Amino acid sequence: MAINKKNLAQRAVTVVFTLAILAVVVLLLPKWYMHLVLAVIGLLGVMEFDRMANGFGYRVYKIPVMLFILLGIGSIYLPWFNLLMLPYLSFAMVCLISLVPPSDFTKSLPQLGISIMATGYLALSLVSLAYIYLLEDASGKDMGRILICFCLLMTWVGDITAFFAGSLFGKHKIAPKASPNKTWEGTAGNLVGNYIAAYVAKVTVLPQLDQWDLIFFTLVFGLLGFWGDLVESTWKRGARMKDSGTMLPGHGGFLDRTDSIFLTAPVFYYYMKTVVLAG
Fold first, then answer.
1. CA-CA-CA-CA torsion for 247, 253, 257, 258, nearest 10 degrees?
2. 129 CB contacts (<8 Å, ≥6 apart)?
3. What is the pLDDT of residues 38-79, one digit of tens each?
4. How far apart are the first and last CA of the chain?
5. Which residues contact 274 (CB under 8 A, 6 or more apart)?
């Protein structure tokens, strides 16, 4: 498959612009700015998820999904709020709001399922990123800014190498019905990119990582990222959509950029907190 030069130029401009903003927000500004950015991305993601649900003839109960994301990120600043309460509260709110009239009761159960899926899809990744930003090592040194960069670097380098490997060498399709452009060659390129990103992080800012950590992160970001991307592709295919949105030229919407993170970010947070940084 040949590389589309116009699409490549759009992607490059979007990446450079996004990286410039993130570099300022992540590395220079107080941490609450990054949490605010994640909350805004969550709200925009809810709108994109609703657009996708409309393709199936349903809608998302947006208010409880938005509240879940805001409460999840806001729990950092609310010491009295137990994050473990969040799944129950979200489930209860979605169930409650489905009873608000007028309501088409023939759609109530599917819309409950879609809304709960939207909550998990968005909140798992965004709240995990918010908490990754707070991580410290065993000595109390702030590691959050570095780890956010590491997490995003792993995702984006893998995506870039997958794109070029698939475009230049891709012949063997993995799931032609769900994602026609996804090939085994691209997936192999993703794994190579993941390992390169992990190794660069180890020799520059994260000497705590050993060889097994590099392999673990390569597989987690390569395989779970691929899985998340493929799942969203099936949703878009079912909704007869190419992209979830148009906010990111050449890349689609915010959901198209978080599909590789929504399964990997929680694992990354837990592993870094309990294994790498635990001392």
1. 120
2. 38, 148, 151, 261, 265
3. 999 888 889 888 988 998 989 898 888 888 888 889 888 888
4. 47
5. none
